Amino acid sequence: MELLKDKVAVVTGGTRGIGLAIVKKFLDNGATVVLCGSRQESADKAVAELKEKNSDYKVSGIAPKLSNSEVMYDALTKVVDEYGKVDILVNNAGISAREGIEEYEDEDFDKILELNVKAVFAGTKAAVPLMKKAGGGVILNTSSMVSIYGQPSGCGYPASKFAVNGLTKSLARELGKDNIRVNAVAPGVTRTDMVAALPEEMVARIVADIPLGRVGEPEDVANAFLFLASDMASYITGAVLSVDGATQV
Description:
By secondary structure, the protein is an alpha/beta fold. The protein is built from nine helices and seven strands. Strands 3-2-1-4-5-6-7 form a seven-stranded parallel beta sheet, sandwiched between helices.
């Protein structure tokens, strides 16, 4: 069964890692997907690789400035012009840092907030009028387990993800009357390129703190996004769904 048949989704940060897994999962479930990359070249490359795997995929790529609501509105309006609607927006793009507070530069903190928080705000602001006009929609935000527990360094990243949770819960209350559901997924340690590059002994220490005994796979996280995007979650809004194997912090 295709859970997103005939749906149109926009996924930011969709060229690699968890974002790319979300794009694949949505495509495999019948959606048309527009993925957003940091550069048009990276977006085009991801689209080409996806179509090489399955020529029937309905996927295209764009590279708008995610933190500018006017730019995002123009980009999403073009999606509507081409595909007729935007049913689902996934605000997934993000960056992190691990510096201690004394080493943290102001501009680095600002950079994290711009992509991890302001882009969620800007994308959502752009999508809402289009979704209202269509009678509703789904907005999904990528949070993190550190939005619940914090982390011992790199305070900008957990601060940004706490903000994502606040946006998610507040916007769910604001937009429910418009039939727009807003939820977030909070992944734990997931096997992305960054984790794959870690020494085996470090990964072993990480796994030791995870009751399920393994790190997460991008598909584990993508499954949560699929569920929340689908009609199976039609009465779920304002949730922050942890996908972390009950990680012990």
